[in-house]
Amino acid sequence: MSKPYVSVEGISRKFPGLTVFDNVWFGVNRGEFVCLVGHSGCGKTTILNILAGLDAPSGGVVLADGREISGPSLERAVIFQGHALMPWLTAEQNVAFALGCKHKGWDAGRLRDAARRALEKVGLGAALAKKPSELSGGMKQRVGIARAFAVEPKMMLMDEPFSALDALTRGALQEEVSRLVTEAGQTAFMITHDVDEAILLADRILLMTNGPMARVAEVVINTLPKPRVRATLHHQPGYHELRDHIMDFLITRSRTLAGIPPGDYDPRHPPEVSPAG
Amino acid sequence: MQKPVSAWRATLLSFIILAVFLGAWELSLQGAGQGAGPAMDPEYAALLGQAAASGGQTPMPKPSEIGHRLFQLLSDPFYIRGPNDQGIGIQVAYSLGRVLLGFGIAALIAIPLGFVIGMSPLLNAALNPFIQVLRPVSPLAWMPLALFTIQDSSISAVFVIFICSIWPMLLNTAFGVSAVRREWLNVARTLEAGTWRTAFRVILPAAAPTILTGMRISIGIAWLVIVAAEMLVGGTGIGYWVWNQWNNLSIADICIAILMIGLVGLALDRLLGLLARAVAWQE
Fold first, then answer.
1. Range of the domain at A16
2. Which of A81, A92, A166, B172 has CB atoms 3.0–4.6 Å from A128's, for a disulfide?
């Protein structure tokens, strides 16, 4: 087995008198889509920010491509929870700004053309000249997605990117992201608390207990065949077992498992389960 | 909620108010100042001139007289007949020049410095006591110190404008920069945008509306202060002109100066208002 693309090795986040999470280990393989599921306050966003290089752990290290992450990198793009578009720029200029950061030598015309292509890819060809305030929530997040994919990162990090959207828009964007990640052969890591979203997108789902002292309690292997389609997903055999397992975890076990781990718990290898068979 | 008013109705009402005010002013002075003074020896009156002939009282001018005088002044605003007799346009131009020079230098220093203060919480905390002490000082209090050190009255006036317009720009820039949303900075960081690109492409446009508000406050204060400063230093400018007309007892000219100062101040504010609109953004 090859070494994982991203390897999280014993990271912790501690404040005086409070340990949010401690000794967290997991890996994300090249081309794999991993979802992290857990309740608020377990440090999910902190873990994503550490992977992005925006934050540093109190202890432990994270390796990306074999090198320690010491800061943000164009190799790892982030799709933010609140789209984080610059409101003074049009959709096209927002994407062009990102492209300009990666390709320092490109002139304005080349940046504009590339930004257009990136926006057309997410179905926003008609909204190029619009400012974020003139776009709907779903369209704003589409621009955020186009911006992240435009720089062609090796890894895509997503912090509950669709949680503010209505169900219909969310579904469309989930499939969009799934398609783009697969097309580009990218590695992806997403935080979510939408169980269906995790089942639709993830190859593996990390379940975190509640904080403080949060940990990865188990790793759920998603064995449902790919490509998965939202419309038919819930008819697939094994779907309900998978969904029930994660729901049970979120409703009860995330709470009952919190705190001191059981004696046979190995933080480097949390138990793996595949409820879908 | 109040209903929106139509623009022309408001304008009409403005004109009615103006007409009533000017009409009342005109009527209240009707018949005053003509032969109402105490009896005086005609020869003595002839010696002293017209002012004394009306009993030593300068009559308050009527709006119609002010209008006539305004027409005279504006028909030749840029004449120069010696250092003490220059057109009102020249005087306003002097004042505007000082304000723009002092304000411009203040902006060149306040905006970059405010940027640095806004980016660095340490510098912000370290410089804050100085700013808080110096900011409430009336700019005119600096005048003697300026005259003593610079030894040039005209440059001293510019310095006073500089010192009064620097604070709002400095504080607003620092606040605007420090309040830039974390997520935009995070976007720039994940894109490895670098310090200069982040400063000019992210922080500057994000803080621009706040900076422009500071500039608008500054130029308003500068225009208030220039009149007083020029009264002190003398020589040229609309403030000096007002004081000169007071010494000449030309009350009509003083009324005209007040009107001019108001109109120029309005124009300056509108100009920066347009600039603020150009850099405004909406979430």
1. 1-28+52-70
2. A92
Would you list the DSSP string of B145-201?
HHHHHH--HHHHHHHHHHHHHHHHHHHHHHHHHHTS-HHHHHHHHHTT--HHHHIII
Q: What's the rounded Cα separation, in Å, for the pair A243 and A237?
A: 11
d(CA A214, CA A18): 11
Whether residue A211 lies inside any domain: the answer is yes
Question: In this structure, is residue B182 part of a structural domain?
Answer: yes
Size of interface A-B (CB pairs under 8 A): 62
Q: Which of A74, A75, A86 to mutate to test the interface with B (most CBs of B within 10 A)?
A: A86
User: Does some domain include residue A37?
Assistant: no
Nearest CA of chain A to the CA of B252: how many Å?
A: 49
Domain assignment of residue B61, yes or no: no
Residue range of the domain that includes B110: 93-279
Q: How far is B276 from chain A (nearest CA, A)?
A: 13
**pLDDT given at position B59:** 79
Provide the token pair at B74: 């504006």
Minimum-distance CB partner of A88 among B187, B188, B281: B281
**Residue A46 located in a structural domain:** no
Burial (0-12, 13-18, 19+ Cβ within 10 Å), A262: exposed
- With beta carbons under 8 A apart, name residues in chain B contacting A156: none
Same domain, A216 and A201: yes
The runs of H, that is alpha helices, within chain B are 7-28, 42-48, 50-53, 63-75, 88-119, 121-134, 143-150, 153-178, 182-190, 195-198, 204-233, 238-247, 251-279
- Model confidence over A93-140: pLDDT tens digits? 999 999 999 999 999 999 999 999 999 999 999 999 999 999 999 999
Nearest Cα of chain A lies from the Cα of B220 at a distance, in angstroms, of 27
Are residues B189 and A54, on separate chains, in Cβ contact within 8 Å? Answer: yes
Contacts of A87 in chain B (CB under 8 A): 281-283
Report the C-alpha gap between B248 and B227 in whole angstroms: 18
